[in-house]
Structure formats: structure tokens, C-alpha cells
Amino acid sequence: MDKRLIAVLTAAITVALAGLVVIQWRWIKGTIALKDQQFNENVDNALVEVSDRLEHIEATSGFREHGVGRDMLARMDSVARMPDAADTSRMELPPMSELGDGLTTEWTRVYDERDSLITDVVRGLFSTRFYGSITERVDPGLLDSLMRDELKRRGISERYDHGIFGEDGAPAMTDLVEAADSAALRNSPHSTRLFRNDLVGEAYWLRVHLPDQQRHVLRSMWPLLAASALFILLIIAAFVYTLRTIWLQKRLGDIKNDLVNNLTHELKTPISTIALACEALNDTSISKSPEQMKVFTNMIRDENKRLGLLVESVLQSAVSDSGRMRLRLTDLDLHAVLADVVRNSAISAENKGGRLELIARAELAHVRGDRIHLANVFYNLIDNAVKYCETPPVVTLTTSSDAQGLTVSVKDNGIGIPRSEQKKIFDRLYRVPTGDRHNVKGFGLGLSYVKAVIDRHGGRIRIESEPGSGSTFHITIPFEHGKHDQAPGL
Asked: What is d(CA 267, CA 161) in angstroms, rounded to the nearest whole number?
């Protein structure tokens, strides 16, 4: 896939995801505002109902205190218990002209009593003494009980502060959970007038403040908020994973193309050299002295060895990547293994004017491991140290041991590795960028194989390096690990 197309696709998906998140947020914000409005309406309705109930209770109480009213309520109660109470309660007093002489006196008394009650009530409505002070008219316990009941009926169980305030804002009666909430209660938008039917007297306002209103709204929406957040996170995770996969595939494609190009060049060079040497040997027109024969045969041998190393590195990487690497664990003297590796690899360093050195300081050098794979690990490290060195290479292998395992440090005086690249060098097919210089050949397979072998042995590898100051690889192999013929990953 073209890099430009990937960039356009990434930008398009990013814009779409950002738009989806914005739309979702605006929808959630609108839903929260709607829930908050419904909450406010419920609180205001509760206040109105409390005010009406207080007024009704006061009217009923005053009615019962009036003698005639008490008798009328008793009659109404008796009528209500009659079978046809619903119809009887709607009956009107008949005109006295329609009554018999025996009932005229009784109905006259009833009319007089009703007129007396109405007169007393009307007089009371215009008398400020009828009402008394607000503290006498409202029982704090009753007010709190009514408030709690009305709020609970509307699904509101949060703590609340309530109080009665005069027209000037002065508190007449308050009930606060915390004294610090006094100002919030005074300025609360939730208020209603008490005893709205009073014709005279000072007006009083019932106010309520709910400090946990926002928490109540959010708690009522938490399933919706949780589901929305989960879906958005899933979309973002899928988006990131998709983009990461696309860019990784693009990078792997580029790396594989480089590998094919490098592999083609690397294979063509020794093949061409061997072909030329064979043609020279077969050409009868060219005189061949023993020295020339030796040069041609050595050339063929060296290039054939080079071909073998190329094929071996590819096979090693394929085996480690496919998971078919199996360890043949035996008791090893790692000092003896390292001595063989240094002896066999010394010629490559000497050809460039350098040297290899083994410093065996470990008191315990016996581990269980696969001899071939461990030897290949150090061959790879030494080969890299020699190749990536612009001066005569000096490679030192130092061993040390502790109670847990054996550590081998491979130090060189090469070009070094930048800190930003050190976490990537063990990735398969990865090569440290060298700018426009391509004087060092390779496929980026060696260190990934080294890491795979050390991991299979239960060990660990780390690097210390600075550009221009060389590199040091520290490999630690535990004294006890794994089982015989252990399959990778088991």
C-alpha cells in the first residue's frame, strides 16, 4: 500500500472518529441537561405539594377547632359511611318552602349554623390574628416529614437542606445538614410561597437545596455513560490497532523488499566469483602455476563458505521465527565453548588488523544448554563486532558468575548503537540505519536469532552502547532452567 494512501486513510479515520466522539459528547451533554431539568421540575413540584398539604392541614385543623365546623365534619363523616355516600354528598339543602312544618325548625337551625361558620371563616381570612406567626403555623417535624415524603415519591433520596424565609430574605425557620450550606439554601432556585391563599399578612417562602443534585443526575445516567464510554474506547482501540497494523505491514513490506534486494546482491556476488574462478581453472589458454591454482581454490572455498553462512543465517531466523527451534540441553563448560568460538573467529579479526580476547573470570562455568545454538550466539556477536568497526577490531569476551547464573560480556570498539535504536535491534529483519553508507552487508537476522536462543535458555540479554564508543552485550544464562528437548514457549 502506498504511503500517501495510508496517510490519507489515517487522516480520514481520525476525522471520522473525532466527529463521532464530539457527537456522542454533545448527545450525552444534552441528555444530562434534560435529566437536570427533570430533576428541578420534580423538586419544584414537591415544594408546591408540600405547601398545599401544609395549607390543607392548617385549614382542616382550624375547621375542627370551630364548634359548628366540628359538628359539620361529624355529620359529613357519618354521611360518608352511608352506602350511597357518593350521591348523598352531592345533595343540596332543599328550600325551606318545600319542607314540612315539622322540619322547618331543624333546617332553619342548619342554615343559621352554616351562615355563622361562613361568617367566622370570612372574618378570619381578613384578620391577621387568625394566622399567627409562621413558627406557630408550621411544625418543623411535620414540614421535614412532608418534604421527605414528597421528594421520595419522585425518586429523590439525596440529602437536602430546607428552610422558610421572609419576603426580605431573612430566615424564619431552617434545617441545615451543614452550617456552610446556609448561603446556598438562601440563594436556591427551588422555592414556593407558603399559604398562597392568605389574603393578608406577610408572605413566606419555602426553599430547598440539594447539594448532591449533580451526583443524583449522573448516578441515574451511569449505565448510559458507562456503555457510551465503553463503546468509544472500543472504537478508539480498534482504530489504533488497525492503524498500527497497517503501518506495521507497510514497514514489514519495506523490510522484506530490502531483504530480497540484499539477499539477491549477497548471493550473486559469491556465485559470480565462484563462476569466474571455475572458468579460469577450466581455461586452457591461461597458464596455471601452483600459486595461481591455490589462489583460485582459496577464492572458491572462501566464497562457498560465505554462501553457507548466508544460507545458515536465513535458516536460523526461519527456525526461530516459526517456533520449531528445539534445544538439545546438555551439561556444558561454557569456557570451552567460548574458547572454540574465539579460536575459530580470530582470523576474521586478524584480517582487519584486530584481535579477539577471552577473559574467563567465572568461578562456575557449567550450565545446561544447547552447544550449537549457544556457539552460534557468540559467533553472531563477534561477527557483528568485527563488521561494524571502522578501526582494527578489538573484541573482548569476559565471563563472571554469581549464585543465579553465568554472565558473558562481549565488548567491542565498533561504531556503537544510538540509544533510540537499542530497543529495536533484536527485532527480526531490523537493521540500524547507516545513512547513505552501505559498506556493511547483512539482513537484520542475527540479533533476532541471538535473542530467541537466549530466551529459550531462560536467560536475558541487554546492551550498553554509545555512538562512537563501541557496544557491550551482557548475556546471562541461569544455572538451572528448562527441560531436555524443551520446545519453545513451553
From this structure: 87
